[in-house]
Amino acid sequence: MARRTIIAGNWKMYKTHEEAVSTTLALIDGKGGMKGREMAIFVPAVFAREVASMSKGKGLDVGMQNMYNQKEGAFTGENSPVMVKDAGCRYILIGHSERRHVFGEKDEIINAKVRAAYEFGLEPMLCIGELLEEYEAGKSKEVCRNQLIADLRGITVDQMKVMTIAYEPVWAIGTGKVATPEIAQNIHAYCREVLTELYGKETGEIIPLLYGGSVKPDNAAGLLSQTDIDGLLVGGASLKADSFIAIANA
Ligand code: 13P
Predict the structure, then answer these.
(1) pTM greater than the 0.90 cutoff
(2) What residue spans define the domains of the chain?
(3) Is the CB of residue 95 below 6 angstroms from any atom belonging to ligand 1?
(4) To test ligand 1's pocket by mutation, which of 7, 12, 92, 101 has the most ligand atoms within 8 angstroms of CB?
């Protein structure tokens, strides 16, 4: 089975309602063939239903950027997996570095969210990646390995068939310091080794591994040319339809 290629945008906490609608329309109108790649956007919760309904059947998948791990309850300020699904989302982003390092999410809660995604019919995109000091100490692989093992605890081979992993080195996010294609490929190949160890060769081979961190139209092609880089998770450069489309067609 061939591995899918996914170009995903993470809008983070940006855009007014009007901007969300106009960017979605521009993406639908302008994305073109994208060389057989899939396109997805992770939008703020308040825009999810409308963006998902606009995108339905248009080759643009939608996800939310975070959720809680319970079906419902007294959890003020949170969105449940049922709500994400009901809004029309296909995907849910889990464990983004800003959730881990700004909001203090630990692997245990990230694992609970991954389990909840499966329980309620969402496709998780799990983000992993090391901090600058861990990178400088040569610990990138160790950090990614530990995160994969902890965050995927209890997840079955069958469930992994609809898993996507995004490697986002924290030192490359929003800093303009993109990992070189070689650095990224090296970590991606290692993550595939870990996934193969955990889930077997067949599953390890088909899980799409996306790279994220300062992806721009001019560095996208180099990253995508690597054997184990199966897509991109784009922050800043996904906010404008033009640059996101250029990346998707790179
Ligand atoms: P930037 O592309 O802005 O570096 O952000 C990457 C990211 O965090 C995507 O989830």
Answers:
(1) yes
(2) 6-248
(3) no
(4) 12
